[in-house]
């Protein structure tokens, strides 16, 4: 159900038509949503009639109860009844005539504070309806007309009252179909729907709470001890790869110059992860798999893999071990820069400027420097010099996505250890 309490008199004290219907009654009999209207006149304990009571149906089967209090001294004549009405109201309507400032001032000074005190819910919507056309249309300066203008309630006064109550302010210039049914009725019906939604929500919450109380409660378990907060350690991936190169741990490939005077050790899986040339060199791919003829040509002209038969046999009594693959670097200038090139590869193959600086310092010859850098570009198939840090990062991400160590995960290709799971 929806309970509406209306206070105030829309007729001014000088009105000639005392039989004009009230705002509430005009709405009830004109609205298409209202049906089965019953009305009665209630009196206080002293016998004075204080309000008219209307009962009707709205939205089909929702019970609507309206108490329309025309006299403002209801709080003085019957405080208990008026407090009960305001406390049980879902919507409060305050109405006054714009041409009766005395009644408005009495309402503002004496009865609005009482309405605030008697209202139990701060969320109860309040509608303030200023009714009638102000009698100030003729710009006459005679004392009588000036007196009439002073007796009118201005719009700003009504708006200020609405602010004090947190109310919705409406001006109804006449009690016709437009102002009563569409304007006032539209606002009133909006608050009716809001009230029904709120009551339905509260009813649902109460039902869930009741069901929860009747439900079998689970056993109360002791709270577990507070576990320590695990802090993630910073990644050592780059440093580990660098140490793997510097310490020559688990190396399975060794690069030599043609005179076999020096050796540089590395790891096949890391080299293959950055370059299809090394995949071809270590027989991970065949020449038919490599569509770029320049890669095949560079591999043959730059490197030569020595066959295992050329290696000396292991001494008697010592178990044979798999030695690193021996690769001869045919280009002596490139071979002298191989440690710097391997550091570049093991750091992610994106610090191109650093590689250029290292090779320039070592060779001190622009032609040789350009020659070595072109070989590196052909091996890694990089697009050339990367100018900005942003470009370096984006190229690194794209490069590692296409050819990275993840390609050799869970595959026997280049694997030197295999874990077997029992069962």
From TrEMBL:
- Matching PANTHER family: SPECKLE-TYPE POZ PROTEIN
Q: Does the keyword Nucleotide-binding apply?
A: yes
Q: Which keywords fit this entry according to its UniProt record?
A: Nucleotide-binding
Q: Which positions carry the signal peptide feature in this UniProt record?
A: none
* MF GO annotations: GTP binding; GTPase activity
Q: Which Gene3D superfamilies match?
A: P-loop containing nucleotide triphosphate hydrolases (3.40.50.300), Potassium Channel Kv1.1, Chain A (3.30.710.10)
The BTB domain extends over 251-354
Organism for this UniProt entry: Spizaetus tyrannus (black hawk-eagle)
Q: What is this protein called?
A: RHBT3 protein
Tell me the SUPFAM superfamilies matching this sequence. P-loop containing nucleoside triphosphate hydrolases
InterPro entries referenced in this protein's UniProt entry, alphabetically: BTB/POZ_dom, P-loop_NTPase, SKP1/BTB/POZ_sf, Small_GTPase
């Amino acid at each position: 159900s929806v309970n509406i309490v209306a206070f105030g008199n829309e007729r001014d004290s000088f009105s000639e038509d005392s039989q004009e219907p009230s705002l509430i009654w005009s709405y009830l009999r004109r609205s298409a949503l209202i049906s089965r209207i019953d009305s009665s006149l209630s009196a206080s304990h002293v016998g004075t009639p204080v309000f008219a009571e209307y009962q009707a149906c709205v939205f089909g089967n929702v019970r609507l109860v309206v108490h329309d209090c025309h006299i403002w001294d209801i709080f003085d004549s019957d405080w208990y009844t008026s407090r009960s009405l305001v406390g049980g109201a879902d919507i409060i309507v305050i109405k006054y005539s714009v041409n009766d400032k005395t009644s408005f001032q009495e309402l503002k000074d004496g009865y609005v504070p009482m309405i605030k005190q008697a209202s139990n819910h701060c969320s109860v919507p309040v509608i303030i309806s200023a009714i009638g056309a102000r009698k100030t249309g003729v710009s006459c300066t005679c004392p009588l007309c000036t007196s009439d203008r002073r007796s009118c309630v201005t719009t700003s006064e009504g708006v200020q009252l609405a602010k004090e109550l947190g109310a919705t302010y409406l001006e109804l210039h006449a009690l016709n179909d437009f102002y009563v049914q569409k304007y006032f009725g539209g606002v009133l019906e909006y608050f009716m729907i809001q009230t029904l939604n709120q009551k339905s929500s509260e009813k649902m919450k109460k039902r869930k709470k009741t069901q929860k109380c009747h439900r079998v409660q689970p056993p109360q378990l002791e709270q577990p001890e507070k576990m320590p907060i695990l802090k993630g350690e910073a990644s050592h991936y780059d440093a580990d790869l660098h140490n793997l190169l510097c310490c020559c741990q688990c190396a399975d490939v060794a690069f030599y110059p043609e005179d076999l005077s020096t050796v540089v050790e590395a790891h096949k899986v890391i080299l293959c992860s950055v370059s299809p040339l090394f995949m071809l060199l270590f027989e991970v791919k065949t020449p038919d798999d490599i569509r770029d003829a320049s890669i095949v040509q560079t591999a043959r002209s730059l490197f030569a893999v020595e066959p295992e038969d050329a290696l000396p046999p292991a001494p008697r009594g010592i178990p044979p071990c798999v030695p690193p693959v021996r690769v001869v670097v045919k280009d002596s200038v490139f071979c002298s820069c191989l440690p710097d090139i391997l550091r570049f590869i093991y750091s992610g193959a994106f610090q191109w400027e650093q590689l250029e600086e290292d090779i320039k310092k070592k060779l001190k010859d622009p032609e040789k420097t350009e020659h070595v850098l072109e070989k590196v570009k052909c091996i890694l198939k990089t697009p050339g010099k990367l100018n900005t840090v942003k470009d370096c990062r984006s190229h690194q991400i794209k490069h590692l996505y296409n050819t990275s160590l993840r390609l050799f995960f869970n595959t026997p290709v280049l694997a030197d250890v295999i874990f077997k799971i029992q069962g």
